[in-house]
Queue: 2 jobs
Job 1
Amino acid sequence: MSALSTAGLMGMWHFGLPTPAVVGAIILLLLGLAYRTVCLLGVPISAEDSGNTLKLWNGLSKGHHIKEQVREKDGSAVVIEPLHDFDWKTVEPRQFRHFKRIYHITMGKEGPRIQYLKDATLLTMAAGLQSDTPSDLIAIDKDYLDRVTHRRHLIEKHGSGVHGCLPGGVAAVNELYTYLTSEYLPTRFPTIFQLSDDGTQFINNAAGKTWPTAPPEDPAAALRVLGETVEEDMFLLHEMPEGHKSYAFVCCFPSGFDPSTKVGKLLKDIHAPVPSYDKIGASMERFFARTEVGKSVKRLNWAIQTHGELYNSGSNHMTNEEALDTPQDADINIDESYYRVELQTLTRLPRTRALLFSFKTYLYPLRQIKEEGLGSELADAVDGLKAGNAPGTWVYKGAARWSERVCEYLRA
Ligand code: HEM
């Protein structure tokens, strides 16, 4: 509309029609165009809203009126709710207990409800994918400093084994870096992360580190900063004609796989060792393609491990061949055995349209599960790994090595 109407108004001015109204209309039009440009470029503007600073990713505004407009226009508004009085040192890690009697590999939003403890309250969550709020992309608790310090050491030790980027992933890495350092983290956790007055520096008060908000030229350097700033492991994917492909990653807490072998691969190849993945592969690709900006999802994944390591590139998983040669281990140290949970999220980045797959890892001692009275339920869930639609999961998760001792303990 704009070009035509502007020309019309200019014409009216030439022919001596009331000038103040025309000038006003032109100014309004120009302001409208400027606003639209800001939205399209995704330039962030912070907004004060009822005393709370709300930030909208890719199109921000001062009032509900414009916020709604942005939502209607491209559906890409993302509100980040600040946690103003957040004291990370006092926040307990979230407690998930989501094992089920029978394991089914599924993408579905429907399915059995699962339980988790939050602030000592037992809550439930759907077993498959569940919608998530963009504010919850990153979780921080009292383990934060230990975890990110450990991640820095893992990055130093394993280098390109835990982070990397293909040329096709550079723009997505830059977008993610800018979003987390300039917008998400300082807005969501203002007591931990701040921006310098000129906005060029990102300050992490908990870790005592300062980084530029402009992404480093080397995407690997950007991934290293992200890897030691948040606990979440991250993969960036782009949709290709043959399926979604991983282009960049920083993954310090892999559970039984080598993350560097997953970059440049399609989802179906990434999941090659996962039993019965073919049951969900096609619907997963379709679901990923439909995922919109601001409509994140989450899911939970669990495992048992008989050691306390967060970084595990090999031993948590097992192949059928390995299982044939591996007897049950009678010497398992229960005090070093854990119920391991990944809280996984999927988020669409608005500018590059890349998909961010991220997950935070939780380790709960088996003793704790038993003390909560959930021992036999977890033991049943271990047996149930071979009872559902993906029976190979029992071997894949390594139960052929540890299930006898672990289940005996859990049921005693
Ligand atoms: C949200 C949809 C997804 C579903 C339903 C899903 C499902 C699964 C399942 C059931 C497993 C077996 C894990 C276990 O039981 O220990 C698995 C493993 C894995 N998934 Fe996914 N996944 C999803 C998305 C992704 C994405 C986007 C990536 C991106 C890289 C990914 C990377 C992996 C990797 C690396 C493994 C380990 C594979 C191995 O053992 O080598 N997943 N996934």
Job 2
Amino acid sequence: MAAEKTDSVILSLTPYRETSCILRLFTQTHGLLHGVAKGVRKFGKSSIPLDRGFLIESLVYYKPNRDLHTLGSLHVSNFFPGIRSNITKSIIRDIALELYLKTIPQSEPHPKLFNLIVDFFTAIDGLPRSEILFPILWRFIHEYCSLAGFGIDARACGKCGIDIRYNRADAMSVSDDKYFLNIGSGALVCKKCMPSKNGTGYKINDTGVNMGIEVDADGLLDGSVVRFMDNIDNDFPQYPSKNDRLRITELLLLYCRHHFDIRGRFNSAEFIKSF
Ligand SMILES: [Zn+2]
């Protein structure tokens, strides 16, 4: 039984017996993995107890075709203190963890997805401007969807093909229009091509996923969000209102639920509403 050293993110953890934990990990080398960490709950007073969202380094005694592996020499590389001490950052972290937990069924390596979530946590951990936390979450979800093979095309209108990042009248100035997200295809539709609200077949209801199709006001993405997702701007232009923070987050999670066929809502996203 060979031991491999690997980095991983703790997606969730469950106490196990007297002093151990079962960790659901997203590892750099094996993707999703369940591991038993023995004796981790008898740390001394000065040490930090393990928690979800931590980046750890450990040995994995990997046994092919087994569901549960043994972990050893566990070491916390980064517990992201800036996230732990900030409630909004913690909620945003939990949305990312829940996205991974709900959508990654296979135990196979995904080094890009591993880097994506580590980079995301690193970015929000040290972020002094809390107003761009949600835009950074949106970009993270957008990049995640792209890596999973169903990214939203944030450059051109899915119907007329026009570059939606700029005003049509003046190609140099950025557009503040809103764009319609077609949940099924991942295309954005410009104002000119947008179907009318009462048009045929375009309706998303609360449970969304099974309806499969497009629109109403809740299916709109703002121009600044679109450009930010596409990495054109280094900075998010304005502080999104509470309403927009919830609406856009919900819309992007609805998009994920549709494409990953997730029935249930995101608990972490429900929590923001009550917060
Ligand atoms: Zn168009």
